[in-house]
Specification:
- It is a single chain.
- This protein is an alpha+beta fold and 474 residues long.
- It is built from 15 helices and 18 strands.
- The strands form four sheets. A seven-stranded antiparallel beta sheet has the order 15-12-14-13-17-18-16.
- It starts with 9 loop residues before the first helix and ends with a helix.
- The C terminus is likely disordered.
- Bound molecules: flavin-adenine dinucleotide.
- The site of flavin-adenine dinucleotide (FAD) has 34 residues, from β3, α5 and β10.
- Flavin-adenine dinucleotide binds next to β3, α5 and β10.
């Protein structure tokens, strides 16, 4: 591959408030690093935007210089499209502001905000909206793909709470998208990811939550997995939507409330959450304690923001990760059997199987109401292949893929693009199901040249890639 001569970015710098980071900049290596350590790419230029108008300038510059465009929110997506080789990265890590209007219960969120930035700002007013469970995740990618977490059963997905967004499109226009303006674009960005433009602000609806919730972990021996998960399945069937319980099968981390001889042993962890009055939560969650002979628990009333960070120590950046995901309308015995079988052969101490409960408000939205289409999904099961050394790549990726294939016959339709690896491009159409044809039409209208293709691509054409291929072979 021919090496690109150093780009002259003077004209771009004159137009923007933010910072341009070229490969010889002292911040370059830090700026190109993302959450998944498997991704090691070297962009030609990183534009750390300072304000929304910087985005239009960056898109224009990329087009002029035939550069592929990556968009980086929190840099968490497992596929690693937020950083590219030899192209231009639109980096939002300098735009993290969250403005809250408590009167109207709205948050105006810049695209570089993490979930921690968001939760902390809105909780100052006793408010929240459904977002993910790891506080270093970016609000941008999470929202554009759908977004779910502890509050989803009660308040739906993040996109179900998106009121409006400001979007810079491929031709550099700055559009406002809402239920009344640029309606098609608004529909498409609620699940369609970064395919349609670059979002420079999200307006989100908020709900009263906390400040304290009743939440925590109950840990059972792996030998009781079948019993615990069967009872879990029955319990959640009729549990109120303010309550959420997810199950994780993995080796026990060195949690202080577990005795040392349990550390490193396979266990089943029930992560429990109740959004209502903490004293009611204690009563409602009590039956879970009897699902088996618990090895230990840490459950109680705690600040919502603390619970939102509870999984951070298990999901730190810098590890190698390969994740896959299926939706389920029910967790039948075959699914349980497959989960238990693969949890009995975990290839590393950090690999895990994650069973998340979505059933509730998200299922009440019609399939065609947003680009995200899997409105029948009541559960999501993720295989989290996670390890430290390149020597374990084959084994951990192989285990993740084998689980994914084994569980596929029982999965329901659609897929969550936010958990799709970079090698799942062929799965994108199936992920959107009945909504895919409308997504193609809207993509054709807003980005006919597929400028924004480093994502779970809704592919209409490929001219930019063609140009780049020619340039590279020159
Ligand atoms: C540890 C971990 C925990 C997770 N937990 C959850 C969870 O509980 N719930 C859940 O729903 N998901 C969860 N996810 C998945 C998460 O939603 C996706 O990884 C999401 O893409 C992360 O957003 P980001 O901004 O950090 O990612 P990035 O990698 O920065 O962005 C992902 C993609 O989104 C697009 N994009 C980003 N910003 C913009 C923008 N401003 N405008 C246009 N396009 C943009 C780009 O195409 C980009 O490649 C988790 C992921 C990880 C790694």
């Amino acid at each position: 591959m021919a090496t690109r001569p150093k780009l002259n970015t003077d004209t771009l710098q004159d137009k923007i408030k933010g910072t341009i980071i070229l490969p010889d900049h002292s911040a370059y290596d830090d700026a190109r690093r993302i959450w998944n350590a498997m991704i090691d790419r070297r962009p030609a230029v990183i534009v750390r935007c300072g304000e929304a108008t910087d985005v239009a300038a960056a898109v224009g510059f990329a087009r002029e210089h035939n550069l592929e465009i990556s968009i980086r929110g929190g840099g968490h997506h497992i596929g690693g499209h937020s950083v590219c080789d030899d192209g231009l990265v639109i980096d939002f890590s300098g735009m993290k502001n969250v403005r809250v209007d408590p009167g109207t219960r709205r948050a105006y969120v810049q695209p570089g905000a993490t979930l921690r930035d968001f939760d902390q700002a809105v909780q100052l007013h006793g408010l929240a909206t459904p977002v993910g469970i790891n506080s270093t995740t970016g609000i941008s990618g999470l929202t554009l793909g759908g977004g779910f977490g502890w509050l989803t059963r009660e308040y739906g997905m993040t996109i179900d709470n998106l009121v409006a967004a400001d979007v810079v499109t491929a031709d550099g226009k700055m559009l406002h998208a809402s239920a009344n303006e640029n309606v098609d674009l608004f529909w498409a960005i609620r699940g369609g990811g970064g395919n349609f433009g670059v979002v420079t602000q999200f307006e989100l609806k908020l709900h009263p939550v906390g400040p304290n919730v009743f939440a925590g972990l109950i840990v059972f021996p792996f030998q009781q997995a079948k019993q615990v998960l069967t009872r879990y399945r029955e319990f959640v069937e009729s549990a109120p939507e303010q309550l959420n319980v997810w199950a994780v099968l993995r080796q026990a981390p060195p949690l202080p409330f577990l005795s040392a001889d349990v550390h490193g042993k396979e266990v089943v962890i029930l992560a429990v959450f109740f959004a209502g009055n903490p004293s009611s939560g204690e009563k409602i969650l009590q039956p879970l304690r009897g699902f088996g002979n618990a090895l230990g628990e840490h459950v109680g009333s705690m600040p919502y923001t603390q619970w939102q960070q509870a999984f951070d120590p298990l999901l730190t950046p810098g590890a190698r990760n390969y994740w896959k995901s299926h939706n389920f309308t029910e967790i039948n015995d075959n699914v349980l059997g497959t989960i238990i079988e693969y949890a009995s052969k975990l290839p590393s101490s950090e690999c895990e199987l994650f069973l998340g409960l979505l059933a509730g408000a998200a299922n009440k939205i019609p399939t065609g109401a947003t680009a995200y289409s899997a409105r029948d999904a009541k559960f999501v099961v993720n295989v989290h292949g996670r390890w430290q050394s390149t020597r374990q790549d084959d084994e951990c990726i192989g285990w993740s893929r084998a689980f994914f294939i084994a569980a596929a016959p029982y999965a329901s339709s659609g897929a969550y693009t936010n958990f799709m690896t970079a090698d799942e491009g062929e799965r994108v159409a199936a992920a959107y199901g009945a909504n895919y044809s409308r997504l193609l039409e809207i993509k054709q209208r807003y980005d006919p040249q597929n400028i924004f293709h480093l994502n779970q691509n809704i592919r209409t054409s490929d001219p930019i890639r063609g140009d780049i291929a020619q340039r590279r072979s020159a």
